[in-house]
Amino acid sequence: MRENKNRKILFISHDASRSGAPMVLLTLLRWLRSNSELCFEILLGRGGALEQDFRSIGHVLVFYQEPPRHRLKRIIWRIIQPFLRKVYLYRLKNYYRKQNIALIYANTIATGEILEFLSFLKCPVICHVHELEYAIGFFGSTNFEHVKNCTGQYISCSEVVKNNLICNHNIPCSKIETVYEFVRVSEIRPDRAKYQVCEEFDIPKDAPIVCMSAAYLDWRKAPDIFILLARDVHKKVSYPVHFLWVGGYPEKIQMQRLMYDIDRLRLNNFIHFLGEKTKPFDYLAVCDVFALVSREDPFPLVCLEAASLGKPIVCFDKAGGMPEFVEDDCGFIVPYLDTEAMAEKIIELIKNLELRQRLGERARKKVKERFDVEVQAPKIFSLIQRTMK
Known about the structure:
The chain is an alpha/beta fold. Helix content is 47%, strand content 16%. The protein is globular.
């Protein structure tokens, strides 16, 4: 172990956005900093909202340079960028050659090009896979070929992710270890009361609230399905139910498309897209039910966060790994994209306080017992140690 103290692990994150995979890595690195003597470097594909958080726990470099914002500078930058890029990669390669890197930990399959660049280090690679088939295809077959060529050990964030790697990509079961996504439960604490959130969006204090949360408003996260779910709930009840979507960076045209449907369904007063929030727990804490409407979501952190706040979860089957958490005691699993079935379960939970509290409390206990960083991070630490040996 004395020799290992002088050897480093290079942790790669495809970016530093306030989304699931970077947040899991950040939580893991903080745990390793406090509970191990591992030395590590951090390489971000791109920056983002969490970049300073990464810099607070280790030395950080960024693989892709962003162009200047000023128009004239951006034009000049594009002309000389190929030369600057070669110089930058040359310096990056020389830097890592001197760092005694013993292991590369690639967080997500979106790191394929970076792994290909780092192949000169000739060290073991662990790839932590947070993606299912649609997302893998989105990043491209060439990217994933780079991942497979470099990786000797995989971590899957759920069993459905593991099965996808085996069945669709011929990766041997012996090379994959499932370690579920995790949160630090002790840090999930809301700072605002429900009445404050209700005042912010002109919601009656006694109105039922349904939440969904995602860092993006893309096809996989399904904001369009969220709107249809709100429609189906309002068809079945005579009182207003409010729907909050926490997170996301809606582009102008994207928001226009969503509002097109919201206007015609006359739901303007009941659906609220909040955008990114630095304290999303304030909004998750006020909901009665968390509705995961994603078409594809491997094992979303937002569900663990909502569950840790005592919220029951309703999700679709065949849409990712969340049924592995919900099971039969933390909420309901309904047929894929069946918004009417989901609406019925949401209304049942809204009407039945005892059921809502019982499922929510079981969800809270399950997160603490099985999905806290103190439970899952040691599994990754053990795998890192075995791989380095």
